[in-house]
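Good morning N.,

You mentioned wanting to compare the apo and holo forms, so I went ahead and generated the holo version with adenosine monophosphate. This is what I fed in:
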Amino acid sequence: MTETVLLVGGGGREHAIARAVADDCALYACASVRNPGVRRLADGFESIDETDAEAVAEYATAVDADLAVIGPESALEAGVADALDDAGVYAFGPRAAEARLETDKAYQREFMERNAIPGCPDYAVFDDTEAACEHIDAYDGDLAVKPAGLTGGKGVKVIGDQVTAEEAKAYLRDSDYDRVVLEERLVGEEFTVQAFVANGDVRTTPAVQDHKRAYEGDEGPNTGGMGSYTDTGLSLPFMAEGDYDAAVDVLEAVVDALPDYKGVLYGQFMLTDEGPKVVEFNARFGDPEAMNALPVLDTPFVDVLAAARDGEPLPELAFSGEATVCKYAVPDGYPTDPDAGAAIAVDEESAGDALLYYASVDERDGGLYTTTSRAFAVVGRGDSIAAAEAQAEDALAAAGDRVRIRHDIGTADLVQRRIDHMDELRD
Ligand code: AMP
Ligand code: GLY
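and this is what came out, ligand included:
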């Protein structure tokens, strides 16, 4: 039977999801952004705000969807999975109560403590700004300052890295967050493990390293992610034996505590000299990390979705064994002062063997133009990170100078720096 799948969301992540399922299902999509890649792959598309749970559920019913995949966290927070489930359309995405694991960082740490999930840093929760500032003054060591709610990956300030203690206090006093989490600053290298979760099963995909800083050499402000890479196996070159499995143990412990969780569970880890610690959980694929994981997944993603819906064990996953390097092209000036309206000069054909994924682009007069967000990404694949990186760069040669790319992502130099950093910390 051919499944009818509704995809919610319109970014690069959702273009990757669309490509992973389009050949094996009838695909419909809805989002506020009119992603040309998603629209080309879908049999139907409707402009719907992805946080309008009732409208999404109505569209799902109208197209007779058998199941739905939800991309963005804003939709999960708005209860889109709840509305779809209640309308009789299985949503591969957690209900709002379980998505709190991502949408409320205070809840997330309290959940970890209550359930003895390994890898939880020291933390404290404050709903009073002055009390938080006093804690910063009194704490022996550096802290990460995290607004409890969603901030698109841009709300966290790390003392001793991005800001001084005085700047962190000024930041808290200037913004009026209701609740903040102050936690021990973790030092090491970050990596992500994304898992498909349903019916108590956890099926993990290769570890990914994202690059959050806007500029080469990890300088500049934090972004939603400038690009990311995976290696040929499940682990990354700077990880030691056992680190990947330790991360999987964390995800499994979360699902043991939340047996009804369904959808993608994304663990963001800091690999410290004591092993992986949890930076955060997300309740969905990462963007860009979905663009690394899905192109090397040989198991049809639709089979995972159907098993999840049918209450069956999830299939064991098979991967192609290729390394991947994903690089985002963003408008010049992103994220602080983005230059919208630049023509996009790379398309699926000119990308050659690399994969092209659209994110936020404006389609008019037969052309595509940048907006104020990340515009498009290319993904190179190969039998090494270096080969994948070269393929991505070939595709980006025509990108022009009105978009900015972190050309250092996936290069031998940067990967070596990660390895050296971990060697130093472990000594
Ligand atoms: P989050 O929104 O929780 O993913 O945080 C964004 C970024 O802030 C992370 O990717 C880390 O680079 C950094 N970060 C968050 N928490 C910590 C921490 N406890 N120690 C060091 N860096 C952190
Ligand atoms: N790339 C980080 C995220 O999607 O949260």
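The two ends are 56 Å apart (CA to CA).

Happy to go through it together on a call whenever suits you.

Best,
F.
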